[in-house]
## 1
Amino acid sequence: MKTKKGFVLRNVCGENIIVAEGKENIDFTKIISMNETAAYLWKNVEGKEFDSDTLMSLLINEYEVDDTTANKDAKNIAKQWIEAGIAE
């Protein structure tokens, strides 16, 4: 999978949010806010090919988390990003 072109992570008033750039991506019906962990993952995969195993490795390397939890969390975030339309 890959993050969709035109979506960038910005810090707005201390909040990590995904901002759509370009008129083809403008949809003000939802704002995508990311916690610190999701923002860390996004920064590391933005514009690159990745899968849930990539996200899992990033989680394990950055945080004190076991393989099972990291795998579950990585699959969940990948699914959420696809459902939100910011990754494909």
## 2
Amino acid sequence: MKHDNDPANYNEMKHITFGLDSNPVTAIPVQTHAEKPGDHFLSFSEVYQLWNDLECRYHDLKMHRNTRNAIRLAIVLGGQRPYEVVNTLWSDVNFDDATLTVRAEIFKTAHAHVVPLTDTAIDILKEQLKNKQGPFIFFKTSNPQEAMSTNTIAQALARYRDKTEIRYFNARDFRRTFKTLGGQIGLSKEIRDRVQGHAFNDVSSKHYDRYSYLKEKREALETWEKALRLKTLK
């Protein structure tokens, strides 16, 4: 019904109409249990295990290096959404300023979101750069001109869970993992939210500046990187 009455669709899509006069899904009960926010996150030991396996485990873990790096980058950048990671273009990366911009069209809040790059993140990107085959950092192996599908990550993690005794988790849990473990290592809730690009309702945030809190976000991600690196070296 919204489509048929939306002025934005009138010129382009006027030949397609649905003619609905009622909502066809009204009779379907709301699945309230499925709408509850998830509360699962990986523990530090689970993150260390996953990180080390992504770097070193090849004998029984069939996972393309492209996919491993996409997962690693999502983790080291503070739980950025997998969809945003795989749809990032090389033109979104500024090696001189050590930043990565999540474009407004792929970011949930429709604002461009700037994420500082730590040394580990830069190493991952430079490794990907050696195999650059198109505009996307993470690309489909069957068509390098297209972005890797998030299903590729989901399937890779499913195979990983089958090979290990790690508790069930999925890629969405990386975001919650940073939020929870970041608190354990002393990062404030505000800076964790800003690293992940949460919308703020204060006056200064409404007049959005993508480079706001860049220094603080960089320090937070460097602390996060240090927490991961110190343990993985033990």
## 3
Amino acid sequence: MVAALLADQFESHRGHLLAVAYRLTGSVSDAEDAVQESWLRLAGASQSQIEDLRAWLTTVVSRLCLDRLRSAAVRRENYVGQWLPEPVVTPVAGVRTPDPLAEVVLRQEFRLAALVVLDQLTPPQRVAFVLHEGLGVPYGEIAEILEITAEAARQLAARARRAVREQTPQPVADAEHEAAVQKLLAALYTGDARAVAAVLHPAAVMIGDSGGTTPTARNVIVGPDKVARLFLGLLRRYGLDRPEDDFLATGVEFVRVNGQLGALLRGRPSEDGYPAFPSRVMGFTVVDGLIRGTYDIANPAKLTGIRKN
């Protein structure tokens, strides 16, 4: 009876814990693992010593995520190409089954562009910022997690706050975002580099993350002309620009990528002398009605956050 009650109490906090863990790590799998590990630790803890279960679990998850962030920093040293957060992909019409993480990413602070900025922070800065700015956790408690002074925790959060404010683009209305993404697909359908460049922002960037598994933008591509050429070059490489193929009409599915309209490109085997095309997810950032950021996520290990039912 006690175990069942404890399990019910934990489940009531699962959505909150997943939100914290995902924003801290930028990884669906790491977030889910951290939340599961927090349950195991709760089951083995003395309940009489836990005054506030939500706060206790938040602290446990934050410490676990800090360890994962430090481990990820080590992994990135040998990672091939750019590193992007792991997206949460849901149907345009909405999630058909209850999914706390899919609900969470509808909030502005979970948009892909915001997570890209968080990825540029040090692990301690990220923990301090997310816990204080997002949850209002006192600096003293953050200091205990990071094993530093409260003043040092305050300084970490302040530096992170400045970086996030300076680098995160202002959000636009969903209708403006969706119109820009649809214009991009229409321009790609023409195969005209000038038409594609015309729907891209003057400061357009494209970042690809495949972990070396498939060609993409191994470095950050800057400028509408270069981004347009890369888009069309990828289509030509895989034979996806052939009129008889019509891949852009049949092989691309509009989806929500962290709450905003993006695209899921279906993989296909090699054929007619063209190499196999792996599945990938593309997310976008829109500024002034134009595509400012394109995030091409093609590493299979980063596609575990696809929720299609």
